[in-house]
């Protein structure tokens, strides 16, 4: 059994985790970063990133590799394992890894991210990054003057559909029920937008498209009441049925909201437990961008440094 100790332990390998590692290492905190077995977060399934400052256009995995290289360059110790259990009732805190390693840390930055919920279709997975997306603000720009569909009925789906009208000529909102769950004011804006058409009581059965190059050309929809099947021509599909924050490790020890996002002090990354900080999509359900996650990773590292200096 290996035992390690550090001033700052960073859990997660997305933009928030790598940025926290860079700042913590530059503050001479000798951070350890536990990356899991698939580091890079949601950007690993993003093809073209055109809204990250400094890059006119870059592939998601390439951007993540740049961040990883920089964190390594400043001598962050990286471990490709997952944290199975955290003991936050003692000081120093303890993290138990699946490979048997135990890490003791004076402060912990949680940057475990969130996972988009998907429809679970093979065809959806096939066209992921090639017309199927989970983020309108990330990918809407690529559908200028085109026809797109959004699946969902909550606030996120309505906001994504409204946002997409700034780029697409036509937006379909597909919802399995006959009424939306979104806030009334958002519903009114959606229903009064001439570019948006709602298809009620329907589910996506299949995503169809071309093979070479891989691209979406349409959807097969089924009406859940009449069982009638229809084909809909679209250039893109945005799945907006929610995200699952990866907060299982701390669900019994930190304050979470009703959806499982870690609660932090406003304007800060400080959680309900002193010395534990949360950055990126595990605590941010509003913006969910690589740049905001990176910014919060920076904040978390600086706040962890202040916490350590004052203790």
Overview of the molecule:
The strands form five sheets. Strands 1, 2, 5, 6, 7, 8 and 19 form a seven-stranded mixed sheet that branches. Strands 10-17-11-12-13 form a five-stranded parallel sheet, covered by helices on one side. The mean pLDDT is about 95. A hairpin with a 5-residue loop joins strand 15 (about 215-225) and strand 16 (about 230-235). The longest helix has 21 residues, at about 290-310. It has helices at about 15-25, 60-75, 120-125, 135-140, 155-165, 185-190, 290-310; strands spanning about 5-10, 30-35, 50, 60, 75-80, 85, 95, 100-110, 115, 130-135, 145-150, 170-175, 195-200, 200-210, 215-225, 230-235, 235-240, 245, 275-280. With about 300 residues, it is of the alpha/beta class.
Instruction: Work out the number of β strands.
Output: 19
Q: What is the average of the pLDDT values? A: 95
Radius of gyration: 21 Å
Strand content: 25-35%
| Distance linking N and C termini | 29 Å
Largest sheet: 7 strands, mixed
Name the overall outline: elongated
| Element order: H for helix, E for strand | EHEEEHEEEEEHEHEHEHEEEEEEEH
Instruction: Tell me the helix content.
Output: 10-25%
Helical stretch tally: 7
Name the poorly predicted regions.
none
């Amino acid at each position: 059994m290996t035992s390690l100790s550090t001033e700052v332990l960073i859990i997660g390998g997305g933009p928030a985790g790598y940025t926290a590692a860079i700042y913590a290492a530059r503050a001479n905190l000798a951070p350890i970063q536990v990356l899991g077995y698939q580091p890079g977060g949601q950007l690993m399934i993003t093809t073209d990133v055109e809204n990250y400052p400094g890059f006119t256009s870059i592939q998601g995995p390439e951007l993540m590799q740049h961040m990883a290289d920089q964190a390594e360059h400043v001598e962050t110790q990286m471990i490709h394992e997952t944290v199975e259990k955290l003991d936050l009732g003692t000081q120093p805190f303890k993290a138990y890894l699946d490979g048997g390693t135990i890490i003791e840390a004076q402060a912990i930055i949680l940057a475990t991210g969130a996972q988009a919920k998907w429809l679970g279709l093979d065809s959806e997975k096939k066209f992921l990054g090639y017309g199927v997306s989970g983020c309108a603000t990330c990918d809407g720009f690529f559908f200028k003057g085109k026809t797109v569909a959004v699946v969902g009925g909550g606030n996120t789906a309505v906001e994504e559909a409204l946002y997409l009208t700034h780029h697409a000529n036509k937006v379909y909102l597909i919802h399995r029920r006959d009424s939306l769950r979104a806030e009334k004011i958002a519903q009114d804006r959606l229903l009064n937008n001439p570019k948006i058409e709602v298809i009620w009581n329907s589910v996506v059965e299949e995503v169809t498209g071309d093979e070479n190059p891989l691209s979406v050309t349409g959807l097969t929809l089924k009406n859940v009441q009449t069982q009638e099947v229809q084909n809909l021509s679209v250039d893109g599909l945005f799945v907006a049925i929610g995200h699952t924050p990866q907060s299982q490790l701390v669900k019994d020890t930190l304050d979470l909201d009703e959806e499982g996002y870690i609660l932090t002090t406003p304007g800060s990354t400080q959680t309900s437990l002193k010395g534990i900080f949360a950055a990126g999509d595990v605590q941010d359900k509003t913006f969910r961008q690589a740049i905001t996650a990176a910014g919060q990773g920076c904040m978390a590292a600086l706040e962890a440094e202040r916490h350590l200096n004052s203790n």
